[in-house]
C-alpha cells in the first residue's frame, strides 16, 4: 500500500480543516450542522491552484482569524 506524499502546505491545510471540524463540535448540537456546512463551503468556494503558495498561506491566515472569531462562546449560531 503506497502512502500519499503531501507537501508541508497541504498538511497545514488539512490540519486547519480538522481544527475547524473540531471547533464545530463545541457548538450547540442544534447548530452544528449549519456550522459544518459553513466550514465546507468556505473550503470549497475558492478555486486556488495548488502551486499558488502565497494565496494559500494568505487564506490560511485569514481562515485562522475567522476561526478565532467563531470559536467565541458568544457565537452560538451562524447564517451561511
From TrEMBL:
InterPro entries: Complex1_LYR_dom, Complex1_LYR_SDHAF1_LYRM8. Transmembrane segments: none annotated. Residues 12-68 form the Complex 1 LYR protein domain. The keyword Chaperone applies. Keywords: Chaperone, Mitochondrion. GO terms for biological process: mitochondrial respiratory chain complex II assembly. The keyword Mitochondrion applies. It comes from the Eukaryota. One of its GO terms (cellular component) is mitochondrial matrix. It is found in: Mitochondrion matrix. Belongs to the complex I LYR family. SDHAF1 subfamily. This is Complex 1 LYR protein domain-containing protein.
Amino acid at each position: 500500500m503506497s502512502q500519499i506524499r503531501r507537501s508541508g502546505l497541504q498538511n497545514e491545510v488539512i490540519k486547519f480543516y480538522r481544527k475547524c471540524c473540531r471547533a464545530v463540535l463545541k457548538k450547540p448540537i442544534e447548530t452544528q450542522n449549519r456550522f459544518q456546512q459553513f466550514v465546507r463551503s468556505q473550503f470549497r468556494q475558492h478555486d486556488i491552484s495548488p502551486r499558488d503558495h502565497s494565496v494559500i498561506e494568505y487564506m490560511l491566515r485569514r481562515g485562522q482569524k475567522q476561526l478565532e472569531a467563531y470559536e467565541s462562546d458568544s457565537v452560538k449560531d451562524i447564517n451561511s
